[in-house]
Amino acid sequence: MADHKWRVYPLVVGEAEVPQVLDVFWSLSKDKSLVTVPILAWLLVPLNHHTEPILVDTGFRDAERCMKVHGLGPHRTKPEWTLKQQLGNHGLALDEIKTVILTHLHYDHAGGCTQLPNARFVIQHSEMQAAAAPMVSPRLEFGGGALFYDRKDIADLVDPLWPQVDLIEGDTEIAPGVKCVLFANTHTPGSQAVYVKTESGTAVILGDIARNVELNINQGIPPGLFYDLEATYRAMIRIKKEADIVLPCHDYNVVKKYADGL
Ligand SMILES: [Zn+2]
User: Fold this and answer.
1) Which of 75, 138, 184, 198 is the most exposed place for a label (fewest CB within 10 A)?
2) Rounded to the nearest whole angstrom, what is the distance from the C-alpha of residue 3 to the centroid of ligand 1?
3) What radius of gyration do the chain's Cα atoms show?
4) How far, CA to CA in Å, does 166 sit from each of 120, 158, 203, 219, 228?
5) How far is it, in rounded angstroms, from Cα 200 to Cα 242?
6) Domain Metallo-beta-lactamase spans what residues (predicted)?
7) Strands (DSSP E) along the chain, which ranges?
8) What are phi and psi of 205, to 5 degrees?
9) Distance between Cα 73 and ligand 1 center (Å)
10) Into how many domains does the chain fold?
11) Cα 199 to averaged position of ligand 1 atoms, centre (Å)
């Protein structure tokens, strides 16, 4: 059987200033400062064109809303950071994207779905359920009363995009060489990583299961936002074992390193 390999390109679809504490389990960090991070989506292009390209994540809906609704720091967009422009750099139009994998449904990953009229959206069933009715205290002053799920994104997915939504249960091969792997109750209840076969080995797109490769994966210190601490510890260990290249969604280093594709 042919060995199907892919090229992976980071797409910058926005930028945000977020607390450093998101990177590291809270009790281990004294650093309360803000850091500037990119909001990334990813384009998977099949080598030898054995199938169609795949988009992973879609960025946020609009910067103003991130600050107002979710109570977060500055978020920025630029004309060259739109999904349309970022795909255009690779010769693709929005309506040419047929498959989108959503690592999870937070506002900065699931905010661009309505721009993709012909895509099916591959989402873990448990993530869709959690996003529709998140467990959260109404007193929490950030997260928009829905723990960083944007009600508008979820409403769009439930209707009108529902016919395009493809709910999966657990680990699922999406195309030869591309697999979704469920890491339940880590960053979110239904967070999934995307395992991609490349010429440099298995690349793992993390979503936000981990944020800082050195701290979270190499040193095994969980990130600051998680559901189940033990599940998150196990995820760090498993990803370290299984990934040849680890790709977090909020790290400018990977943008620099893999600007020309991985
Ligand atoms: Zn994120």
Assistant:
1) 138
2) 32
3) 17
4) 6, 11, 23, 35, 26
5) 13
6) 38-250
7) 6-19, 34-46, 54-56, 75-76, 99-101, 120-124, 165-168, 172-175, 178-182, 192-198, 201-205, 245-247
8) -85, 120
9) 14
10) 1
11) 27
| Range of the structural domain that residue 115 is part of | 6-254
1 in a structural domain: no
Residue 39 CA to ligand 1 centre (angstroms): 7
Residue 118 CB partners (closer than 8 Å, separation 6+): 95, 96, 97, 98
Q: Calculate how far, in angstroms, residue 201's C-alpha sits from the geometric centre of ligand 1.
A: 25
Q: What is the mean pLDDT of each run of 10 residues along the chain (262 residues)?
A: 85 91 66 86 92 96 88 91 97 98 97 98 98 86 82 97 98 97 97 97 97 90 90 96 96 91 89
The answer as to whether 210 is a domain residue is yes
Position 259 in a domain:
no
CATH number at residue 237: 3.60.15.10
Return the amino acid letter for 109. Answer: H
To which residue do tokens 């630029």 refer?
A: 78
d(CA 107, CA 231): 23
